[in-house]
Write a structure and sequence with these properties.
CATH topology of the largest domain: FAD/NAD(P)-binding domain
Number of helices: 13
Number of domains: 2
GO molecular function, one term: monooxygenase activity
CATH superfamily of the largest domain: FAD/NAD(P)-binding domain
Subcellular location: Cytoplasm
InterPro entries: FAD-bd, FAD/NAD-bd_sf, TetX_monooxygenase
CATH class of the largest domain: Alpha Beta
Radius of gyration: 21 Å
Family: Belongs to the aromatic-ring hydroxylase family. TetX subfamily.
CATH architecture of the largest domain: 3-Layer(bba) Sandwich
Shape: globular
Protein name: Flavin-dependent monooxygenase
Oligomer: single chain
Low-confidence stretches: 346-366, 368-376
């Protein structure tokens, strides 16, 4: 293949694509807005699934490196009620297909697998335009541009490449995370640490839930999930950590103190993470020389599949390009025709029930999907 691939975004999907292309001897350049690979924290843990994320890593030739960073025991899952009583407790017996890793470590494995200079840091895309005959120009905030005959938007929810293909824009999904951390939890926050257990814990209620992971280094990473409109969150001053913490914890008045401690005793200021989605079944007509992957293509509210799907997209696109090195359009058509239904596939609910959970409530459905292996 003689056309170098231009990838916008050095997230897991874009890097997986670059790596699979490298395995097949296809050159690629990745443009990333962040100034360096260590410019910001890369988030918490990810469960990498044996039916998509791990298959992508296999295509990238990185399964051994992946297994080396798996956090043992983290597939343990427990469900508590608001009083702290255990409703469900499933131990990690080592046979599950969704091992947990730190996102930052997984990203670093992908970065380390690429030739030096593949990623060009400090290139924030601000726009893209069509030049004709399958060629496109991307403009960056630093004043530079890149012209390419094969452009891939792997630049997330607010993709600057997407407008070349689609007029769709993300909309607020009706829920948001408020994120907190507790460090040295077993010694400094023993009650909360005991409640979370050895892996993941969720305490659900209608319109709200507390969800926490035990990460590496004895850290508890908590996502408080609230179904509230954006103006409700806008009324909270998140620059005032104490006031924001007090307001969010107020939503859980009367809950067990070991659960509310995950909010009130946070060792970091609470961070708001609104959820946005693209229209269900988002797709576009084939435009020569450009495509999308990951959240740029099929942004959805968190369900445990986003990172896995992005990596699968990257691997499948890389394999399609390698299979049709002299026919880019055939490769892109093949990729998109498989990606569209894959990204919109319905979550299968097998009828399992959890004591104390109202299966008619959206929180209950999401929880049951998680316990059935649909997301975490």
């Amino acid at each position: 293949m003689h056309t170098p691939v231009t990838i916008i975004g050095a997230g897991l999907g874009g890097l997986t694509l670059a790596r699979v292309l490298h395995v097949h001897g296809i050159p690629a350049t990745v443009y990333e807005a962040e100034p360096s690979p260590t410019a910001r924290a890369q988030g918490g843990m990810l469960d990498i699934h044996d039916y998509n994320g791990q298959l992508a890593l296999e295509a990238a030739g990185l399964l051994d490196e992946f297994h080396a960073i798996v956090l043992e025991g983290r597939q343990t899952m427990r469900v508590l009620d608001r009083d702290g009583a255990v409703l469900f407790d499933k131990a990690d017996d080592g046979t599950g297909g969704r091992p947990e890793v730190q996102r930052g470590e997984l990203r670093q494995i992908l970065l380390d697998s690429l030739p030096a200079g593949t990623v060009r840091w400090g290139h924030k895309a601000v726009g893209a335009r069509t030049l004709g005959e399958g060629r496109h120009e991307v403009t960056f905030a630093n004043g530079t541009t890149a012209v390419t005959s094969l452009l891939v938007g792997a630049d997330g929810a607010w993709s600057r490449v997407r407008p070349l293909l689609s007029t769709a824009t993300p909309e607020y999904a009706g829920t948001s995370f408020v994120e907190t951390y507790l460090f040295d939890a077993d010694t400094r926050h023993p009650a909360a640490a005991k409640a979370v257990g050895g892996g993941s814990m969720i305490a659900p209620a209608p319109g709200k839930e507390i969800f926490a992971h035990r990460e590496s280094g004895d850290t508890l990473h908590t996502y408080v999930v609230l179904s509230r409109p954006q103006d409700w969150f806008a009324a909270i001053d998140f620059t005032d950590a104490a006031a924001a913490t007090a307001r969010i914890s107020q939503e859980f008045d009367g809950w067990a103190p070991e659960l509310t401690a995950l909010i009130t005793d946070g060792d970091t200021a609470p961070v708001l993470r609104p959820h946005h989605t693209l229209p269900a079944g988002h797709r576009w007509d084939r435009v020569p020389g450009v495509t999308l992957l990951g959240d740029a293509a099929h942004l959805a509210a968190p369900n445990g599949e986003g990172a896995n799907l992005a990596m699968q997209d990257g691997a499948e696109l890389g394999k399609a390009l390698a299979a049709h090195p002299d026919d880019i359009e055939t490769a892109l058509t093949e990729y998109e025709q498989a990606m569209f239904p894959r990204s919109t596939a319905a979550v299968i609910f097998d009828g399992a029930e959890v004591p104390g959970i109202d299966s008619d409530d959206n929180t209950g459905h999401r929880l049951i999907d998680m316990l059935n292996g649909q997301g975490s």
